[in-house]
Amino acid sequence: MKTICFYFQVHQPRRLKRYRFFDMGQDHNYLDELSNRSIMQQVARRCYLPMNNLLLNMIRESEGRFRCTFSITGSAVEQMRLYAPEVLESFRNLARTGCVEFLGETYSHSLASLASKEDFRQQVALHTRLMQEEFGVTPAAFRNTELIYSDRIGADVAEMGFRTMLAEGARHVMGWKSPDFVYANPLDQRLRLLLRNYKLSDDIAFRFSNREWDQWPLTADKYAGWLADGEQQGEVINLFMDYETFGEHQHADTGIFDFMKALVPAVLAHRELQFATVSEAAEAHRPVAVLHSPHVMSWADEERDVTAWLGNEMQNEAFSKLYALRPLLRQLDSPDFDHVWNFMQTSDHFYYMATKWLSDGDVHAYFNPYESSYDAFINYMNVLSDFEIELRRAAAARCPEAGRGEPVPAECA
Amino acid sequence: MRVLMFGWEFPPHIAGGLGTACYGMTRGLARNDVEVIFVVPRAYGDEDQRFVRVVNASDVETLGGREQEFSTEFLDKVSFIHIDSNMVPYISPEEYAVYHDEFVRRGETRRETDLWRKRYTFSGKYGANLMEEVARYAMVAAQVARDLEGQFDVIHAHDWLTYFAGIAAKRVSGNPRVVHMHATEYDRSGENVNRQVYDIEKAGMQAADRVIAVSDLTRRIVVERYGIEARKVVTVHNAVRFGTKEEKAPERSVDEKIVTFLGRITYQKGPDYFVEAAAKVLARVPNVRFVMAGSGDMMQHVVRRVARLGIADRFHFTGFLRGEEVQRMFRLSDVYVMPSVSEPFGISPLEAMRSGVPVIISRQSGVAEVLDYAVKINYWDVDALADAIYGLISYPALGRMFATKGLEEVNGLKWSSAAAKIKAVYEAAVAEAEA
Questions:
Q1: Could you list the residue range(s) of the whole structural domain that residue A329 is in?
Q2: Which of A240, B116, B175, B187 could be a cystine partner for A196, CB 3.0 to 4.6 Å?
Q3: Could you tell me the pTM of the whole model?
């Protein structure tokens, strides 16, 4: 019996507006509300609403045999609350079927796991609370931003109480091993790993509408045939992709919705195939081995590493300057500042600063509000500098010794 | 005295000091009773097929609106002729080729709207490369000179792009010709000079009756490296124009001291040295921010360097600034730095001083010849630059001294006196031609 495990990532960053040096110290509203709203509403109309509806029907028609998993970031939820509350309602409807699992992740789709354990924990806790509030579920499985994973990150996640974690079936880590089995983290073997089958996932997410592809057009029967292929050993096939694939990256007129609708009966027609959510799949199969990944990997770009976010001096600088503010935020403990702190952590800001455009330029350019990575960096740093000024002023108001860049005296902390 | 001047666009359409200088000079000349027919290249895009248009001075946009800016004296003395062209100040043959290719590929007129770049319209209906465009411009200029026959006594051309135009005008009219060296190819490109540009500069100066250099530094280059006869090369330092209305300083919104670099971010302006000095200062004092205002081909390199030095939270980029924003930037500054590797004159420190900002300039600039109340350093001496910045922000008395004395000093540099010298040059050229 092979398990087919679909997981969809739902995320929208809160994009920053053009923020100039002259605005520093004067304007403290950093968000581009107009583009954030229009992008959220466009994606809701083209993807979230029709696809949620389709999934709901697929679950009903298959009498619960179709099952899938979502991971929804805090910044996406915040924006749905503001601009498209009907999307949240439709996710709640999916949650009520009991056939859909919601994963834990970082609240802001952040790189906190690479910053410090403390930041990471805080982000995850915030997200867990949000999932409880919005969908009444407590996530048991975890996916880190862009499937960023290493042995150490896995161990941190296990320590937070999660029993399953997702990762990329990256060639350089897997070697001869197949991603179609359950593995375990070497530092904490209780943590089970599900690895993305990038070939089969990308057949839908990237290649579906590509007419140059020798397998075009992709039909549900053909695809179900690949999943059922007896030659390919394996117990669980993990199809992980961005939810925006449906209707946004692959437009409705490519037939992506019809494909998904036909896929469920096509898969279920094979007796040896079944659908499961992430936790169910991890539960159903025993880990076949431990998987060592001492270095950090992810699902991004050809390199499958973190160079898309921390690959040049600008990204490293922005990252270190951002996390250097942590003590001030902890000291101030203010919801207003935490709000900014959260959206500033979103990985997309760092992604826009990437300078390696050769192979994956298209993906990087998607919804990218900047003309160049330099623009992105300059704008981000201007916002960050103003935020820092605000924090220091607030800290100084609270305690005159602080805010001058000197260590905060114990009585003020 | 009547002059046919091949100049550059006026504020606010300027990319640097050249436009500002042409503007001040024209006003100064008007005050000295010189009539100016000002010929400017301007890419109109393509509404109609005319290549030349005469524009009243009162229709030319300028910095502070129309009426207030121009005195009647100015309106009487100056008239404008626009020649449709892609030539913009500071463009290099390489950049021109890039823009032109882009036009051919995309088939549309380029309009720069991006905040981080300078703003010029580029249209593909002109020459395919810069040299072709320079030649085409000269042909149109000859026609202009023929049409205006008898209406001018002398021809005055600014920088190499218009030298051929000046020569053509001279052939047609027979009037003497003065060329003005605002920057040489050595200033723009260091030792890697573009041979074609160098040749045009040299031919333009050889064929001229007089050459005006903006500083002794430039005069030396003209004489020593272009082999121009020293007798006909005259130094006339630029000046600075004062606005009539006193604007009040904008509200400071950050507490830190602000140290500013303002100019094109290119090799010639020495932006690298500013960055290195900033890192040294920041290692000592935290309460200071550095601002680099402008754009240019070294911008990406500089941004990366700033990131690598780990000072991006104290070092900001504003992108290209126009008219009022420039004034605002000066007013917000505590120290202005011009670390130019080679600067024929350098008008921006004067503008900074006018706003009461102490300045640090490199000895390799023409403006260093006319200023006493400016800290002068060698551009390569990053330690000295860091030291000077530190001193000016840490010891308020020092900064105040430079600000007040500097303001007095700069007040003495008037365009009307510079223009009087230029007028003398015209007179000498005319007298010699008649003799």
A1: 308-412
A2: A240
A3: 0.84
B318 touches chain A (CB under 8 A): yes
Q: Are residues A72 and A214 in the same domain?
A: yes
Q: Select which of A105, A146, A280, A390 is catalytic.
A: A146
Whether B59 shows a pLDDT value over 50: the answer reads: no
Whether residue A298 is contained in a domain is answered as no
Give the single-character DSSP code of B46: S
Instruction: Report angle CA A47, A51, A55 to the nearest 5 degrees.
Output: 165
Count CB neighbours of A333 within 10 A. 8
Q: Which helix (H) or strand (E) holds B152?
A: none
Does residue A400 have a pLDDT over 70?
no
Domain end point (choices A235, A260, A290): A290
Return the residue in A17, A19, A20, A22 with the most chain B beta carbons within 10 A, the one to mutate for interface testing: A22
One domain, residues A352 and A231 = no
Chain A residue at shortest CA distance from B318: A21
The tens digit of pLDDT for each residue in A283-317 reads 999 999 999 999 999 998 888 999 999 999 999 99
Instruction: Write out the CATH class of domain B257-410.
Output: alpha beta
Contact assignment for B312 to A381 by CB distance below 8 Å? yes
Contact: B313, A321; criterion CB under 8 Å: yes
Element at B379 (helix H, strand E): none
CATH topology of domain B2-239+415-434: Rossmann fold (3.40.50)
A146 is catalytic: yes
The one-letter amino acid at B235: T
Contact of B424 with B392, CB cutoff 8 Å: no
| Spatial distance between the Cα atoms of A125 and A160, rounded to a whole number of angstroms | 9
Which helix (H) or strand (E) segment holds residue B178: the answer is strand B177-181
Q: Say how far apart CA A251 and CA A47 lie, in whole Å.
A: 9
For residues A70 and A366, give the distance between their C-alpha atoms in angstroms, rounded to a whole number: 21
Transcribe B51-117 into DSSP letters. SEEEE-GGGS--TT-STTT--HHHHHHEEEEEEE----TT--HHHHHHHHHHHHHH-S-EE---TTS
Please report the pLDDT score of residue B48 as a whole number: 40
| CB atoms inside a 10 Å sphere around CB A24 | 22
B95-116 burial, b at 16+ Cβ within 10 Å, e below that, comes to ebeebbeebeeeeeebeeeebb
